[in-house]
Design goal:
74% of the residues lie in helices and 9% in strands. The chain has 269 residues and is an alpha+beta fold.
């Protein structure tokens, strides 16, 4: 009789364990496919209950084999603990996998943020360099405009009496004119030669032309093309002051230079 009871308990436990296992397999897709949180909780609880049943059945079988009906009861409780432990280990493994994925996502975001920060820093440095270059260009343009305004007012190269030789201290002024002309190819230079009122008018005319030739030749040697130089000599016909004296004669012995745009120069001619 005792052996029959043990055999019946073993068969019942195996059948119940199989049914519980099949029921757990059927519940798994439902848990994965549903979007309702309450259903997920219910299904999770049912899965845990199934795990307990599996453990209970397993323990019952073990207890029946070992100690008969009393052993089956004790084994059932031990099986519950075994099933619960198996379920906990599965849940821990699932959580560990989720934590690992979260860690990978955090590392990826950290890398992307670092790369973005480096890119922004590089762009900021390029922007600072651009601003610095623009500032330097603005300062250069301002200096050039100021120089051109000074030269546009009129620059005179003075000469000694009866001479067409350029004095050394006027050469630096002519160098400045040549520099501005080289920077701005759209500019022309208007030159006019003069002489004071002393002496013969023909001699004064020829002397003003010689002075004009000396200045244009100096500028040509600095790289200024002849077609950008418009020159004309007036002799003693255009004095700066009505009264003639030693001081006024000095200012009349000159070549006047004036920088102007090509259009304005052509209109003046």
């Amino acid at each position: 009789m005792k052996k029959q009871l043990i055999t019946l308990a073993v068969i019942s436990s195996l059948s119940f364990a199989s049914i519980a296992h099949l029921h757990a397999d059927e519940m798994e897709p439902a848990i994965n496919s549903t979007t309702n949180s309450s259903d997920v909780l219910d299904q999770t609880a049912e899965r845990e209950h199934t795990e307990e049943l599996v453990g209970l059945s397993s323990g019952a079988i073990l207890g029946a084999v070992v100690g008969g009906p009393v052993g089956a009861i004790v084994g059932s409780f031990v099986g519950v603990l075994i099933g619960k432990t198996v379920g906990d280990e599965t849940e821990i493994e699932t959580q560990n996998e989720l934590l690992a994925k979260q860690q990978q996502a955090i590392e990826l975001q950290t890398y992307e943020l670092t790369a973005l920060h480096e890119k922004q820093q590089s762009l900021a440095e390029v922007n600072d360099e651009y601003i610095q270059v623009q500032t330097q260009l603005a300062d250069l343009r301002q200096a050039e405009e100021q120089k051109m305004q000074e030269l546009a007012i009129g620059l005179n190269v003075q000469f000694k009496t009866g001479s067409a030789t350029i004095e050394p201290h006027f050469e630096q002024q002519l160098d400045d004119v040549a520099y501005v002309m080289a920077l701005s190819p759209d500019l022309m230079l208007d030159l006019t030669g003069y002489a004071d009122r002393r002496g013969d008018s023909k001699f004064n005319q020829a002397l003003s032309e010689q002075r004009l030739i000396a200045v244009t030749k100096y500028l040509a040697n600095q790289g200024i093309a002849d077609e950008r130089l418009h020159a004309k000599a007036y002799g003693a016909t255009a004095p700066l002051h009505e009264q003639q004296n030693f001081e006024n004669d000095f200012f009349d012995r000159r070549v006047t230079l004036k920088i102007m745009p090509i259009g304005e120069a052509l209109a003046a001619n």
